[in-house]
Amino acid sequence: MAVDFGNFVQILQNYGFLDFILPFILVFTIIFAVLQKTNIMGDKKKNFNIIIALVLGLLFVVPHIIGYYPLGYDPVQVMNEALPSVALVAVAVIMLMILMGLFGTQFTKAAAPFIAILAIGFIVYIFGSALGLWLAPYDIFYWWTAETTELIIIILVFALIVYLIVREPGAESPGKNIFKGIKDLFDKN
C-alpha cells in the first residue's frame, strides 16, 4: 500500500495542523527560548516562562482561527508568506559563508558584518512585503525586472569581494567602528 505524501499534508491542513499547531510551536519555542536566555522573570523560573510563552503563542494563533485579526493583519498569514523567503535568505547566507571560507578566516570575518546587514535588510523587506507595506521595485519602476535585481546584487557582491581583497591589511577601513558594533552584536559572549 503506497502512501501519497500530498494526501497526508492535505489531511494535516484539513485538521488545522499547518495553520494552528506549527505556528503555535514556532512562536512558543522562540518566546520560551528568549525568556530562558534573558532571565527576565529571574533564575530558575521555568514555570513562569512556559506560561508566558504559552499565552503569547496562543494569542498569536487564535485570532487566525476565529477570524479576528488585530489591525486587519493576520499574523499567521504574514508568517506563512514571509518564512519561506526568510529560510531562503538563511540558506543563501550559510552557503555564502561556506564559499567565503575558501578565502580564509580573515576574509570571512571581514565580510561578516556586510553579510549581516544585507540579511537583515532582506528580512525587513520580506516582512514588509508580507504586510503589504511597500511594493516591489519593479512595481514602482517599470524598467526594473528580476534580472536587474540579480545584476545589481551580483555587482555589489563582486565589488565587496574586490574591496576586501585589494585593501591594505593594516589600513583602517572606513566605517570600521560602525561594523564592529554590529559584529559585537552577533558575537557570542
Summary?
Helix content is 75%, strand content 0%.
Descriptive overview:
- This protein is mainly alpha-helical and 189 residues long.
- The protein folds into 2 domains: 5-68, no CATH class; 75-186, no CATH class.
- The protein has 8 helices and no strands.
- Helix 2 (17-38) packs antiparallel against helix 3, helix 4 (75-100) packs antiparallel against helix 5 and helix 5 (105-131) crosses helix 8.
- The longest helix is centred in the middle third of the chain and has 27 residues, at 105-131.
- The radius of gyration is 21 Å and the shape is globular.
Secondary structure elements and pairings:
Blueprint: H1 5-14, H2 17-38, H3 46-66, H4 75-100, H5 105-131, H6 137-140, H7 146-166, H8 176-186
Helix pairs in contact: 2-3, 4-5, 5-8
Question: What structural keywords apply?
Answer:
189 residues, mainly alpha, 2 domains
The count of β-strands is 0
The description of the largest β-sheet is: none
Instruction: Report the helical percentage.
Output: over 70%
Described by the principal axes of the CA atoms, the overall outline is globular
Looking at how many chains there are and whether they match, the oligomeric state comes to single chain
Order of helices and strands: HHHHHHHH
User: If you compute it from the alpha carbons, what radius of gyration comes out, rounded to the nearest whole angstrom?
Assistant: 21 Å
